[in-house]
Amino acid sequence: MSLHQDAELKKAVLELPQKEKDKLLVRLISKDKMLMKQLHFQLLENEYDLEERIDKLRKQLAQLFDIGTSQIGNTPHHSNFIGLSKLVKQASGLVNEHEKVTKDKTSEAEFRFYILQRVIGDYERLFDSSYQSAAHKLHKYITGRIKHAVGKYDKLHEDFQFDYREDFQNTLHAFGNTTLKSYISEQRIELDLN
């Protein structure tokens, strides 16, 4: 039950002395790591810190995919489909956390495009036709990531869309030339491949 559903408790909390409320607030915040990160960013950081965070995540993602290419082969084997799926989920998790903390839509879109670029650039053979269920699961998952990235791209300011358009279209075109084409049309993802 939330505090909003218990009007009496809400009223009692609001009537506490300020010092008591402050103690409770600090205790509650310390129990939620994401909230702590969000508050740290909002209250203690500025645009330079945001640039630092963006650079750090850019390097983290590059390193993650560089390590991935040494461990996950570009051949259609069960373990490679599973490995790539895990790699993309890990990379997406890093981007999700970055977005939740910073609320920066532009860098979020950049990182989502980067993940897709690395996936199709490093693992294009994993998107050949395959009867393996792991391939089917990976293809559906990546299609969802494409749909998500297209949505993020569509919400960007037109100046930022212009900055990313060529790379994004090339990436989408590369996916459109694989077996993902049928998955993409099933999802009704509108790809501007002109």
- In total, the number of strands is 0
- Global outline: elongated
Counting structural domains, the number is 1
How much helicity do the residues have? over 70%
Mean pLDDT across residues: 91
Structural class: mainly alpha
How large is the radius of gyration?
21 Å
Termini separation comes to 52 Å
- Element order: H for helix, E for strand: HHHHHHHHH
Q: How much strand?
A: under 5%
- Which parts are unreliable, with pLDDT below 50 for 5 consecutive residues or more? none
Report the total helices.
9
State the major sheet: none
Protein name: CHAD domain-containing protein
Q: In short, what is this structure?
A:
The chain is mainly α and 194 residues long. Helix content is 77%, strand content 0%.
Description:
With 194 residues, the chain is an all-alpha fold. The chain is 77% helix and 0% strand. It is elongated, with a radius of gyration of 21 Å. Helix 5 packs parallel to helix 7. The chain has one domain.
Secondary structure elements and their pairing?
Layout: H1 7-14, H2 18-30, H3 33-44, H4 47-71, H5 78-102, H6 105-122, H7 133-155, H8 158-176, H9 180-186
Main attributes of the structure:
9 helices
